[in-house]
Amino acid sequence: MALPLTLIAQLAAGLVQGPIAKLLDAHIADVELRRKLAAELEQQFMAHLSKATELGASVVLAETRSEHWLTRSWRPVLMLMLAGFLAVVGFVLPLADLIAGKPVHFEPRWHLLPAGFWDFLSIGMGGYIGGRSLEKVAGLVFPAADKARSPARK
Prior knowledge:
Oligomer: single chain
Distance between the termini: 26 Å
Number of strands: 0
Radius of gyration: 23 Å
Largest sheet: none
Shape: elongated
Structural class: mainly alpha
Number of helices: 6
Mean pLDDT: 76
């Protein structure tokens, strides 16, 4: 999900033209049939990818239309928490070092986090950014849905 759609499409085309084409060449003698199969595989993959993207967008839209504050606000809250973390590490701690005249003892315990935490965080942030983009685009594509949202949320 964190990968751009064009990159995924290029990967799909590379698979169809690379390893899958070699398999088709090895097992199918008819050149025209190989081309048809390769084109159909690529078309099916792109249709599946498009459907998955639409489902992801519908989830984000359902969240933004939710009655519950936490359901529709967890993405901005996450961003504010991460921005706060960056402000503490990038501004507050260096300022404290400057005021104290020596490094302030700060020992983060990153080693206590599970191994996949940073991957999860990266994917989550990509999902947040993509979700916000979809939310903005949905307002342009479906103006009636944008008007149905409360004025306080715009």
